[in-house]
Amino acid sequence: MQDTLTQSKLRTPRAAAIAGIAFSILFVAAFSLLRIVVPSDPSEPGEWIKTSSSLVSVALNLLPFAGIAFLWFVGALRDRLGNLEDQFFATVFLGSSILFLAMLFTLAAVVGAMILTFAQDAADLSTSVAFHFTRTFAYNIVNIYMVKMAGVFLMSTSTVIIFTKIAPRWIALLGFGLAALLLFVSSYFSWTFVAFPFWILLISTCLLIDEFRQDARAPTAKP
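-> structure tokens emitted (223 positions)
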């Protein structure tokens, strides 16, 4: 029984690390495609629907898998914290992650609806009220609300790291800095959002390295 519990505890950081790395890669790939193809100006005339809707569809198909990996990362990280998890920061940590995921999937659904609705009849989107409403709606979700939830997630997770020491302190300090960047500067720079998956990739790599070090230090079981 004790061996089973020990193996479960050792597998948890590895599960969180692998899920975090998968999320970072998928999220960066999806949002890079969206940022390159779709102009950052919400009032643009929608030329990308006529010329690059297939690339946007690829990005939208990656987002659900990124969301699943992120949910797995959060669950595995909470499992590692165990009894060390503070109720206040746990609520903010879990709440911000769920809101982030909800807005991520809402964004994918809205942009997908735009493609299905307007790709077949994209003659003159500049005068379409429905297109501009949907386009502005998607822009606000990403650049105002989702990015702020990502900043709150970074801040709460960094605070948890400071108190529980499940990762190096410098990662928590970097998380605070990147959280401030997302909360207050993201409106001015469209690529600032990359800071979020970058930090997830960093902490996941640290967890994975720490897991391998624990395996190397663990005594070999005698037959």
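The first helix runs from residue 2 to 37.
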